[in-house]
């Protein structure tokens, strides 16, 4: 009886390692996380899923962002497209991550199972990539990304694309990595700052502050050199600032409500 038990366990282990290994090579279902090609991550090549030279010159991974001038407005929705090219390839996949200047998750990706795109989360980071792709399949993947609710500075998208031959093995596939940076749109006109809504009207060169939930305790506006141009303190339900004589440039707004101080930027043209 013990002999048969050993035989059963051996057969089970053999099935697990051989079957799982074959599945891991193709990863048509979904690429494992941490393979988006960021500087501190693997790509689908170096992780052992696919063999060959990364960025061998015979293909590419191209990234496109729908925002104007490669800028994002906090809270807005955008379309990102990943296009993977490879000579003689039949099957394509990708993985992408978005990070802010502190290497934290920037915004959020939206899964689209109907178009074979899924999202995975680990340690607070989102990875978007192909999921259950057919063989062969198209080399373009478009999906939605929601910008963070506040200005997070420069955001970098890292992506690794796989141009595969479709034989469900690790050989003959080619990995191409790419990155793209977008900047905050510093001239957006509706900024929510610590419970107060500031509306910047560039045509009339004025800023209006409203506090619908709690009074404004302090407002400070400075230029990029740190010179204070406007400052007021007190429990104010609203305030208005004229920018009629201000020079074009970048400005910093600081506003305090309910003891909390927040800041944002805008550009005056």
Description:
A six-stranded mixed sheet has the order 2-10-9-4-7-6, with no helix packed on it. Strands 1-3-8-5 form a four-stranded antiparallel sheet, with no helix packed on it. It is mainly β. A hairpin with a 2-residue loop joins strand 11 and strand 12.
Question: Any descriptors?
Answer:
4-stranded antiparallel beta sheet; 9% helix; 269 residues; elongated; 47% strand; single chain; Immunoglobulin-like; 2 domains; 6-stranded mixed beta sheet; mainly beta
In short:
With 269 residues, the chain is mainly beta. It contains 1 helix and 18 strands. The protein folds into 2 domains: 29-184, Immunoglobulin-like, CATH 2.60.40; 190-268, Immunoglobulin-like (Sandwich), CATH 2.60.40.
- Low-confidence runs of at least 5 consecutive residues: 1-26
CATH topology of the largest domain: Immunoglobulin-like
| Count of helical stretches | 1
N-C termini distance: 85 Å
CATH architecture level-2 label of the largest domain: Sandwich
CATH-level-4 superfamily name of the largest domain:
Reeler domain
Radius of gyration: 25 Å
CATH top-level class of the largest domain: Mainly Beta
Principal-axes geometry comes out as elongated
Helix content: under 10%
Q: What spatial order of strands do you see in the largest sheet?
A: 2-10-9-4-7-6
- Classification by helices and strands: mainly beta
Mean pLDDT: 83
Q: What is the total tally of β strands? A: 18
Count of the separate structural domains: 2
Proportion of β residues? over 45%
Order of helices and strands: HEEEEEEEEEEEEEEEEEE
Biggest sheet record: 6 strands, mixed
């Amino acid at each position: 009886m013990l002999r048969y038990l050993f035989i059963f366990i051996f057969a089970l282990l053999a099935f697990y390692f051989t079957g799982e290994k074959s599945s891991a090579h193709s990863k048509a279902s979904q690429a494992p996380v941490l393979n988006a090609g960021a500087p501190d991550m693997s790509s689908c090549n170096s992780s052992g899923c696919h063999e060959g030279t990364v960025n061998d010159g015979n293909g590419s991974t191209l990234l496109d962002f729908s925002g104007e001038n490669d800028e994002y407005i906090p809270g807005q929705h955008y379309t990102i497209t990943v296009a993977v090219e490879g000579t003689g390839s039949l099957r394509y996949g990708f993985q992408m991550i978005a990070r802010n200047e502190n290497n934290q998750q920037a915004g959020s990706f939206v899964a689209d199972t109907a178009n074979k795109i899924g999202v995975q989360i680990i340690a607070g980071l989102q990875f978007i990539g192909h999921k259950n792709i057919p063989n062969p399949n198209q080399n373009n993947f478009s999906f939605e990304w929601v910008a963070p609710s506040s200005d997070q500075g420069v955001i970098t998208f890292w992506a690794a694309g796989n141009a595969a031959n479709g034989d469900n093995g690790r050989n003959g596939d080619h990995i191409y990595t790419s990155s793209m940076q977008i900047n905050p749109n510093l001239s957006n006109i509706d900024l929510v700052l610590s419970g107060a809504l500031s509306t910047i009207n560039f045509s009339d060169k004025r800023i209006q502050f409203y506090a619908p939930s709690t009074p404004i305790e302090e407002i400070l506006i400075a230029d990029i050199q740190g010179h204070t141009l406007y400052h007021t303190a007190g429990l104010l339900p609203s305030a208005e600032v004229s920018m009629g004589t201000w020079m074009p440039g970048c400005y910093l707004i600081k506003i305090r409500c309910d003891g909390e101080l927040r800041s944002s930027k805008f550009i005056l043209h």
